[in-house]
Amino acid sequence: MFASERIECLIRADRARIYIDIDNVTAAIHALRRVFGIVSFSDAVEATSDPEQIATCAVELARRTVPMGGRFAVRARRAGTHTYTSQDLARLVGQRIRDALPECSVDLDKPDAEIHVEVRENRSFLFAEIVDGPGGLPMGSQGRALAVVDSDAGAVAAWLAMKRGCKVSVASPDGSIAHEPLRRWDVRLKVLPWEPGVNLQELVRLSRSEAVILGTRPTDISPEKPALDVPVFHAVIGIDDAQLRALAERIRSA
């Protein structure tokens, strides 16, 4: 995703987190919102695991994020072995922020801002905002599927299959642009020409798909089943029109 957006970055990971070192945070946020499998992400400041250095960084973060006279909360957690507990760290950081910002107060229930501190072994990460990702499963982790996309319903059905981890190829009629917003979610989207009434079996073979995804609506239900040797999923059959429009808009506006 970053390569398609021409965003330079360094990516590293441990067993529970992916870390991205980057200069253009705004561009990174726009890209990460379209990466399936990411539940949430944050623009973080990195420090050592030393409590005093953490507290110093937390004060600087609080100066930027806690409103004048506002209420704040410190949310601390650790992974690894340290000489302090998460509660010890939260108390220390909270006191340092109160000392630096005496007009502000602690409110753990309804704060105006939250300072998150995550200590992992000998490093710590501090952030004040949690941005939602699309969630789901990493694309391609659940096999291949062919989606018929000739309408918003078809595009939403394909998107839902992507979110479930499928690597989706699209069958689209000539002249249709219904599939174009999906390119923002899969920069290598494969589009195969198809016309209504034509059997999909050959496209299933060409795309090496293990399932077919259709944007069937309740009014489209037919007793005739497609003559295919793979399962057929009607991904939006239980979604009402308002939900369908909302999902289609989300796909287009990404």
What distinguishing features does this structure have?
Rossmann fold; five-stranded parallel sheet; alpha/beta; VC0802-like; 254 residues; 6 helices; five-stranded mixed sheet
Secondary-structure-based class equals alpha/beta
What is the number of independent domains?
Answer: 2
| Strand and helix order | EEHEEHEHEEEEEHEEHEEH
User: How far do the termini sit from each other?
Assistant: 13 Å
The value of Rg in angstroms is: 24 Å
Proportion of β residues? 15-25%
Number of helices: 6
Largest sheet: 5 strands, mixed
In spatial order, strands of the major sheet run 4-8-7-5-6
Beta strand count = 14
What helical percentage do the residues reach?
25-40%
Top-tier CATH class of the largest domain: Alpha Beta
What low-confidence regions span 5 or more consecutive residues with pLDDT below 50?
none
What is the fold-level CATH name, i.e. the topology of the largest domain? Rossmann fold
Shape: elongated
The CATH architecture of the largest domain: 3-Layer(aba) Sandwich
CATH homologous superfamily (4th level) name of the largest domain = HUPs
